[in-house]
Input
Amino acid sequence: MTNKTDNIYASQTNKLAFSFDDQVAEVFPDMIQRSVPGYAEILKNTAKFAEKFVSDNSHCYDLGCSLGASSLAMSTGISAANVKIIGVDNSQAMLDRCRHHIENFKHSTQIELHSGDILKFPIENASMVVLNFTLQFIAPQERKALLQKIYQGMLPGGLLLLSEKVCFADERDNSLMSDLHHQYKRENGYSELEISQKRSLLENVLVPDTLEHHISRLSELGFSRSSCWFQQYNFVSIFAVK
Ligand code: GEK
Output
């Protein structure tokens, strides 16, 4: 995978909104690693969840697969037989690089990549579905229907892994967590200009829900149990079992 440093917003940008274009795809591993607290930990545990939940003759989905890091993490953990991992993304720039990356990375489970909108993509026979930092980019009014479609395509006992940036009901907590997150980015070499430009470009593009909203929606949809297993500041990962 390319390890190019993200300096897209180091000087004044004239972009109006964030998008997953070629420029972002090129520096994506560096960008996500330096911006999302816990990203490496979540990937490591994506493999561990896969080891426990993926069953023989089933499908695994990586929705919003970007460069395929979660697909490759699942493949590391899977010991079940006759499993297919299906990665879906609607950014062609991401998928082109993802294809190349997956071809060059040793993996024992078959990984199939699709260009498409996860809102329309069929889900079936799924023992594991991963939404690592993707639901936050889906329009809030579409989220429940997407999760319902995922639930319907899952096998009983199957696992949904949902990692997200979240917000808080108390405005003081929002600003505390957001300060700590920005400090984390500063410690990872981002400047004030980079942090503030990224923040305004993501406004209305990345729309977080509260953790409580995530958990209650999963329960309303019928998941038998769900819990937050990881949190650092305003970044969480939730598991939900059908
Ligand atoms: C990882 N999961 O490395 N349909 C398909 N793809 C979409 C859609 C959509 N409607 N909306 C957004 N995407 C990855 C990281 S990144 C998270 C996921 C981030 C895709 C989008 O093109 C991008 O590749 C991905 O979702 C979100 O574990 O950048 O913070």
In short: The chain is about 40% helix and 25% strand. Residues 171-187 form the longest helix (17 residues). The longest strand covers residues 154-167. The chain has a mean pLDDT of 91.
